[in-house]
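Lab notebook, bench 4. We co-purified these components, and the gel suggests they stay together. Before we commit to crystallization screens, I want a quick structural picture of the whole thing.
Request: model the full complex, all chains together.
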Amino acid sequence: MLAIASGGGHWLEMQRLYPAFENLDVAFVSVHPAYAEQVPNHRFYVVRDVTRWDRWGLIVLAAQLIRIIWIERPTTVITTGSAPGLFALAIAKLMRRARTIWIDSIANCEQLSSSGRRARYVADVWLTQWPEVERPEGPAYWGAVL
Amino acid sequence: MIIVTTGTMLPFDRLVRAMDEWVAHHPHEQAFAQIGNGAYEPRHMEWVRFLAPSEFTRQVKRSALIVAHAGTGSFFLAAETCKPLVMLPRLAANGEHTTDHQVHTARWLCDKPGVYIAMTERELPVAIAKARVGDPVASQRTAYAPEEFLQRIRRCLVDPELPPIPGKARKGSR
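Here is the predicted assembly.
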């Protein structure tokens, strides 16, 4: 499986899920090479850190993700956001028909993030970490990393 | 020493400039800033653009106080190191982030012990003064998510019968 998170809080939230990955073959993807030191026993890939403002960056990011998903052939992709995670779910769904899990960052406590709203179209499991943000039609609330 | 951090993704010059001016007015204070790709370069404090997580945590442990953007990563860091945390949220109107979710995060965290929110840079000096004499952020019980949440995520990862569209058989794994 592939676990992808952008920097800062997104990456730390993914670290807090680490026990759920025990004995699974996981490759991690994030945006700073230095993060590799936190997942020493796993394959680690770096992708470009982008926002949706950065059109050229999004193209570079998509190319990087296509390469990673081509190499890794994940059956499952999980992300704690943000834009790179959304792209990874979409590309893995198209290329691999992978099972996809979106966990919206705990920072989005009043409304879903903009990537999170778009994730509904590509995520098989579509989660918020706030009961207030849960809706009958999704996203679902299963708990939080904190 | 005070640690200033903007996170490393988007610039947050408003915070860096305000803290640089604060240090200029408090010559007995020392500060160290991680400014990401901000354009404003501090003149009154040491700064870097990016530190690896382990090195950054080491710096934070040596400090008395963290002054940060209202990113959850900074909150986790303050909890890990048991430091008081001053937060200034980024505003979408200033182009500091894509949305105002940091304002929401600030509203969420403002009641937590050890968190001192400045809604504008003008409130920073008061927030710092409060943090100087107040409690630190309470340490988290564990470094990981609650067991129940982990179990649900785990089930979803290992049980091939769950959610629709199971992945195709894995060909030639590396």
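The mean pLDDT of chain B is 91. Worth comparing against the SEC data before the next meeting. DSSP finds six helices and six strands in chain B.
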